[in-house]
Amino acid sequence: MLFQIYGENAGFQLLGWLLVFAGLVVLNELSRRTKQGGVFFFLILPAALTVYFVSIYVGAAMGAEWALNNPTYVHMNSWFHYAKLYAATAGCIGFMMIKYKWGIGKQPWFRVFPFAIVAINILIAVCSDFESGIRGAMALAATGDRWWLSSENVWLYGGWWNWVNGIAGILNILCMTGWWGIYSSKKHDDMLWPDMTIYFIIAYDLWNFEYTYNNLPTHAWYCGLALLLAPTFANALWNKGGWIQNRANTLALWCMFAQVFPAFQDYSVFSTLPVLYSDGVMDASVRPATANPTMQGVIAILALAANVIVLAIIIKRSVEQKKNPYKNEIFTDHRDYRQAMARAEVTR
Fold first, then answer.
1. d(CA 131, CA 124)
2. Containing H/E element for 348?
3. How far out from the chain centre does Cα 101 lie?
4. CB neighbours of residue 288 within 10 Å
5. Do 277 and 294 touch, CB atoms closer than 8 A?
6. Three-class SS of residue 147?
7. How many whole angstroms separate alpha carbon 147 and alpha carbon 138?
8. How far apart are CA 346 and CA 290, in angstroms?
């Protein structure tokens, strides 16, 4: 088992997961189907939240109690959360520029933007994984165990699994093929990346889940499982080729919600801990006495293996087809690719 889902709150934990999963699927549909939806969720809403965040930090710097006690300031203050929120939002805006052909979005050279922004998002997480591995080693040398307390008062357990998963993340960047094969859908409701098939999606999901399990353990039930499965679900059933857009949209929306309402995950009946906290609690004021990092290691190995296998497939196919896998699409014979291209507006 990955998470501690039992006891009197088990029903709330399962309900919370379903609400997050369904909510992200629905909000993704609202944001992608119309320009008005995209503009509201990825331009107007982030602008309003930026004013809110700046106000909190200005108030905190002035010693205002309302700011110092604000849940966002107390529980969501690490560099990672803000970097992820704005990087994901930048991706959503760039993807809208491509699918609606706004400004530079209609220029052929801008088709490389999706690769660049996804790679940046992956590298942000890789750096965070490596940071946890380093801090875990420092804690081991200083205290005899690997527990270290994050700036958000969450005990993390850094170890070799962070390094293994960080390497998997770097390989995952190399698993993105056909950088220039980016299209707008015929209905102009999606940006499509047909060469990003199920191979990449599985490798990415395993890597990213392990990232959340390592570094956001108290949130991984939601930002790991629910958040990752929502775009994969949409891509599998009705939005073939649109996975990367689905992923960016749901990630940005989730980051906005989590940044403003951290209590949902951190201290409510919906809070869910992984098995790492073998004593069943995560209390910032008390250093954990025990740990169960077994699943961290298992998933890290699976994530690395998946990315090695996918990269090997890419190399093999590129050699057989005599193609550069980044300049050219190499999965053109796959069902995923054909279904995505059937939806694409091809102008070249």
1. 11
2. none
3. 26
4. 16
5. no
6. strand
7. 9
8. 57
Q: Environment class of residue 50 by beta-carbon count within 10 Å: exposed (0-12), middle (13-18) or buried (19+)?
A: middle
Task: Compute the residue count for the chain.
Answer: 348
- pLDDT tens digits, residue range 139-157? 999 999 999 999 888 999 9
- Burial degree of 69 (CB within 10 A; 0-12, 13-18, 19+): exposed
Please say whether the beta carbons of 235 and 224 come within 8 A. Answer: no
Please, where are the H alpha helices in 42-159?
Answer: 45-61, 65-68, 71-75, 79-99, 113-143
Phi, psi of 258 (to 5 degrees): -65, -35
| 316 SS3 class | helix
- Per DSSP, the residues of 11-65 read HHHHHHHHHHHHHHHHHHHHHHH-HHHHHIIIIIHHHHHHHHHHHHHHHHHTT-H
Tokens of 81: 């959360």
- Backbone φ and ψ of 261, nearest 5°: -125, 65
What single letter denotes the amino acid at residue 34? Answer: T
Q: Count how many Cα atoms sit within 13 Å of the Cα of residue 108 in the half-sphere of its side chain.
A: 4
- What pLDDT sits at residue 132? 97
Structure tokens at 28: 């993704």
- What tens digit of pLDDT does each residue of 267-308 get? 899 999 999 999 889 998 999 999 999 999 999 999 999 999
274 backbone dihedrals φ, ψ, rounded to 5°: -75, 170
Pairwise CA distance, residues 285 & 136, whole Å: 18
pTM exceeding the 0.90 threshold for the entire prediction: yes
How far is it, in rounded angstroms, from Cα 159 to Cα 38? 40
Alpha-carbon distance 115 to 122, whole Å?
11
CA neighbours closer than 13 Å in the CB half-sphere of residue 296: 28
Of all residues in the chain, the percent with pLDDT exceeding 90 is 90
Tell me, what amino acid is at 322?
K
Distant-in-sequence, close-in-space partners of 29: CB < 8 Å, separation ≥ 6? 234
